[in-house]
Amino acid sequence: MKISLVSWFIFSLYIATFFSMAALSVSGQCQSHQQQLLLGFKNSLNSSLSVKLGTWNQGTDCCSWDGITCYASGRVTELDLSSQWLSGEISNSNGFTGKIPVGISYLTKLVTLDLSQISSLEMPNLKMVVQNLTGLKNLYLDGVNTSANGMEWSQALTSSLPNLQVLSMVRSYLSGPIGPSLVKLKSLSIILLDDNNLSGPILKFLAEFQNLTSLHLAANNFSGSVPEEILQSPKLQTLDLSSNRLLQGSFQNFPPNASLQSLVVGDTDFGGQLPESIGNLDLLTRIELAHCKFTGPIPKTLEKLTHNNFSGPLPSFTSLRNLTELILLDNQLNGSILSTNWSSLPNLVSLGLGRNSFSGLIPLSSFQKLNNLAVLDLSYNHMSIDSSFTNLPNVTSLNLASCNLTKFPEFLKNLSNLYYLDLSSNQIHGEIPSWIWKTDLESLNLSLNLLVELETPSHVSPYMFVLDLHGNQLQGRISFLHQVLST
Ligand SMILES: *[C@@H]1O[C@H](CO)[C@@H](O)[C@H](O)[C@H]1NC(C)=O
Ligand SMILES: *[C@@H]1O[C@H](CO)[C@@H](O)[C@H](O)[C@H]1NC(C)=O
Ligand SMILES: *[C@@H]1O[C@H](CO)[C@@H](O)[C@H](O)[C@H]1NC(C)=O
Ligand SMILES: *[C@@H]1O[C@H](CO)[C@@H](O)[C@H](O)[C@H]1NC(C)=O
Ligand SMILES: *[C@@H]1O[C@H](CO)[C@@H](O)[C@H](O)[C@H]1NC(C)=O
Ligand SMILES: *[C@@H]1O[C@H](CO)[C@@H](O)[C@H](O)[C@H]1NC(C)=O
Ligand SMILES: *[C@@H]1O[C@H](CO)[C@@H](O)[C@H](O)[C@H]1NC(C)=O
Ligand SMILES: *[C@@H]1O[C@H](CO)[C@@H](O)[C@H](O)[C@H]1NC(C)=O
Ligand SMILES: *[C@@H]1O[C@H](CO)[C@@H](O)[C@H](O)[C@H]1NC(C)=O
Ligand SMILES: *[C@@H]1O[C@H](CO)[C@@H](O)[C@H](O)[C@H]1NC(C)=O
Ligand SMILES: *[C@@H]1O[C@H](CO)[C@@H](O)[C@H](O)[C@H]1NC(C)=O
Ligand SMILES: *[C@@H]1O[C@H](CO)[C@@H](O)[C@H](O)[C@H]1NC(C)=O
Fold first, then answer.
1. Which end of the chain, N or C, is more open, meaning fewer C-beta atoms within 10 Å of its C-beta?
2. pLDDT above 70 (res 271)
3. Mind telling me which Pfam families this protein's record contains (predicted)?
4. Are 168 and 195 in contact (CB under 8 A)?
């Protein structure tokens, strides 16, 4: 086996108690073989910059060292070296193999192993590192290069770690499919495998893990159809399948009392209608379906559930009041967006409905009560937006491209935090109002309108880096553009 730590790393390691039910935590006399084990471990590393390891000396009881916790028996129960600067240039020849794995293999009661975010850590033989850690419940290897393919890592985990509850291997250079042997890890509750190169189908057995609360498989290369059972998994709180372009799926039915808080399937091949039962997800705070193929109207249940009937007969049917982010960009949703009563989602911060097929005459004042609304995108639908009698005081990013606007939304005049404004492809006529140059805009797109006059502004936002005025019938002096271009 070869493990090389070629640069600085942060290392944290917890050792379980042999007496995990012990109620008292007192400082006992360190058991001498454990003291030797820890000193050997220290000596295998360059710890000159580690404050904690500086206190590890032969002459003192190891239970008094920084980062060590003992129970009454003097047995080391926890070793926490997180955020310590440790380094090593350690491979076969200079003893890493001899020390770390043997050291770990003695620690068969290790509950948590956290080697994440150690730059340039390679672990080509995952099996060897974990094979004796049969009590391990939490494994964090984020950023560790395991260069393991599906069958290999799945088998290494299942043959050695039957009690695993947390599996976090984000950016761990995994590839191939999820091995069917993983079905044995029934205690898994958190599975974080984002940003690898995993492929093949997402297997149904994941839904059978009765304690599964988080399943994050984003930014891989999964394909096939996501089993409906996974979306209905009763304890699942966060599901992120985004950025798997070949992954298909649809929402059939969300059962009552579902636990989902975050549902992210953007940038996949998901599609179909949003079912009325999406309203059962009364704990939902984040739903992201951008760049998918959803069709049909936004279900009325989204509105229904926003009535917060705390004294009502169905307490689980409270509300989506806490929804902060609703991103449905770039689907084929149609009907009127007024099927949802937006003012009853008071916590919305980001609302993306652009690039769908919504229609109707929509007063922008429908969003007026959303005090926290910062990002609003209604662009490229078949809607006519009426911006009169509106104020959206906290909007920082507003995209009303292709919204059949005929004049500048007046309320923009009063916005101090606006940095992104897209009013392109409308029928806005007349001159560009001078107040537009008094804002702190970074990006302003007024292209493809009916604007005719451009007065030389006395001041242009110093932050502006995008200004698009093409496709108008502008006349006037454009000398100020030098000012823009030179900033
Ligand atoms: C240990 O790390 C320190 C800090 O980077 C470095 O100055 C020192 O040369 C290293 N010692 C060895 C033996 O590599
Ligand atoms: C695992 O434990 C066995 C026996 O307890 C030992 O012989 C072996 O060296 C250990 N393996 C590793 C990789 O530490
Ligand atoms: C990951 O490890 C493998 C095997 O040791 C090596 O061939 C590969 O270059 C490493 N990849 C990166 C990005 O470090
Ligand atoms: C991803 O894995 C496939 C095999 O499953 C392999 O052909 C491809 O080169 C890998 N891509 C990267 C970027 O590692
Ligand atoms: C699920 O969690 C409960 C409560 O923590 C526990 O009793 C049960 O054994 C767990 N199930 C599995 C399969 O680990
Ligand atoms: C993703 O998987 C498909 C086959 O399912 C393969 O053709 C493609 O090359 C893979 N993409 C990457 C980036 O590995
Ligand atoms: C939902 O939960 C409530 C209480 O939390 C319970 O009374 C009700 O039976 C549950 N409904 C279903 C369908 O499980
Ligand atoms: C909404 O958030 C508040 C405070 O953060 C919390 O007390 C409440 O339980 C949440 N409601 C739901 C339905 O999640
Ligand atoms: C909530 O209360 C309102 C009146 O206070 C009532 O009209 C509505 O039907 C109730 N909704 C639920 C789901 O109980
Ligand atoms: C929405 O689209 C579906 C399928 O394309 C169509 O059957 C339906 O009539 C449309 N509804 C509206 C209100 O345009
Ligand atoms: C929203 O705007 C109001 C009025 O301008 C202000 O009092 C409030 O603090 C703002 N909220 C946020 C989240 O910026
Ligand atoms: C745009 O607005 C005009 C009235 O201002 C209306 O006649 C026309 O039908 C609207 N176009 C669309 C696509 O809604």
1. C
2. yes
3. LRR_1 (PF00560), LRR_8 (PF13855), LRRNT_2 (PF08263)
4. no
H or E stretch covering 268: strand 268-273
Q: Does the pLDDT of residue 24 top 50, yes or no?
A: no
**CA-based nearest residue to 346, from 428, 420, 285, 264:** 285
- Enclosing H/E stretch for 386: strand 382-386
Any residues with Cβ below 6 Å from ligand 3, and which?
122, 124, 145, 147, 173
145-182 in b/e burial notation, b at 16+ Cβ within 10 A? Answer: ebbbbbebbbbbbbebbeebbbbbbbbbbbbbbbbeeb
Domain at 318-487, CATH class: alpha beta
Range in 55-64, 245-254, 297-306, 315-324 with the lowest mean pLDDT? 315-324
Residue 295, pLDDT above cutoff 70: yes
Q: Supply the residue whose CA is at minimum distance from atom 3 of ligand 1.
A: 48
**Average pLDDT over the chain, rounded to an integer:** 78
Nearest partner of 464 among 447, 448, 485, judged by Cα: 485
Count Cβ atoms below 10 Å from residue 478 Cβ, excluding itself. Answer: 12
221 CA from centroid of ligand 4 (Å): 9
- What pLDDT digit, counting tens, does each position of 246-257 carry? 999 999 889 888
Q: Domain map of the chain by residue range?
A: 5-88, 318-487
Residue closest to 140 by CA, chosen among 160, 159, 113: 113
pLDDT tens readout for residues 76-102: 656 665 555 554 433 336 333 333 444
Structure tokens at 171: 């950016």
Q: What is the mean pLDDT of residues 22-44?
A: 64
Rounded Cα gap, residues 479 and 224, in angstroms: 56
CA dist., res. 104 & res. 231, Å (int): 38
Q: Is the CB of 211 under 6 A from ligand 5?
A: yes
Ligand 10 centre distance from Cα of residue 275 (Å): 15
Query: Which of 283, 285, 321, 323 to mutate for ligand 8's pocket (most ligand atoms within 8 Å of CB)?
Result: 321
Rg, the chain, Cα only: 29
DSSP tally for the chain: helices H, then strands E: 7, 32
Cα gap 315→302, rounded to integer Å: 16
**Which ligand has an atom closest to residue 356 CA?**
10
Is the shortest distance between the CB of 271 and ligand 10 below 6 Å?
no
What is the pTM (predicted TM-score) of this model?
0.72
